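Lecture 7 notes: from sequence to structure.
We start with the chain below.
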Amino acid sequence: MSVSIRTLRSAAITTAALATATTLTLGPAGTAAADAAPTANAAPIAVDLPVPPGTDWSETTGVNDKGVIVGYADHYGADFRKTPLRWNADLGLTTLPLLPGDRNGQAVGVNDDGTVIGYSGDRPVRRSPAGTVSALPLLPGDTVGYVYGISASGTAIGYSWGNEQSRGVEWRPDGTVVALAPLAGDTEAHALSINSSGTMAGYSSDPNPDGTESKHAVIWGPDGTPTDLSAASGYNTTVAIQVNDSGAVIGSGQDGNEPGPGPLHSLLWAPDGSVRELGTGGGPRLINSAGVMVGEYYGDSTVTTQASRWSADGTRTPLAPPVSNVGAINDSGVVVGHVSESSDGDRRWAKRWNTDGTTTDLTVPNGVEAHAAAKFINRAGLIAGYRITNLGPGSWRHAAVVWKP
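Predicted structure tokens for the same chain:
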């Protein structure tokens, strides 16, 4: 299948936002974290995260249950560079190392023992809790790779690219790279999520000459054995987006090949393999260990999204009016995200949706004039995200921020 590197990397980042592993590890986007909620619904304390001198832009990309946050800082101008960062539980800043010869890098996730995944230059890397950086090898003959998930035991997932083909891979804790096995009759496989025990979810596919693709939802056991989820769904094309620590899987299905006509149906696979329809017009993209799901509902609209929660029986409950988006859910069911002024998302306000149905406004340093979004929440209720402050006409500051319970 011929797909551009940019397309795959963008898909990987989007997937991380849509299907962050339930091990609290993924970055560009949302994390289903572990189990205790804040004991009160009072607004957490907002703190700007420290950054290296000369930083023009900073961002958070993950948080673990021990309060370690990862992200990056951009330095603009002729000396542009991207610097991977780690903030310890006391919010102390560590600049993470790069491989020799590289000037840019990023951290995209962290597991509970403090192992950080990301990249150095264009190379996927793993950084030990002590900070040592090592390259994650690619499959023979490949030249580009990306990593976007890590389990509690240190197994990472991503892809390896070469000869106009991408191949989903897992990197074992010892660094060994293994190509994911597609289903019989398929030629490609990609994992989009990995849970704490190392079970992976994604799809197996067989590209067609006309450019369409028949995808089949799959889970791989920790030993790499694939199991077909698609047959029970009744749809020709299915994708598994995320697997939680209980073995439940969320994803989607549609008639025909992808891309193709017809609506996208949100699906929930129970651990026993049975399938529940969750409807069309948007659906969940994160699921916690209790089976509570969150995502966006857009109905007949193509631009207006509404942050929503789905219970294990498939019932949808709106969390906020449109336009709103979910960032993460923890295992207690506390949800974070943001509400926007309009569908273009220019003005947004960070929110926490509590389990009792109340909403907490997440204010930021310098007051409510700064716009913000909450992206991650861990078991203790520590929330990470960003704020954007208007510094004057045409001047904005994008800064990593944390809300401490």
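Points to note: The chain has one domain: 5-404. Residues 5-404 form a domain with the Methylamine Dehydrogenase; Chain H fold (CATH 2.130.10).
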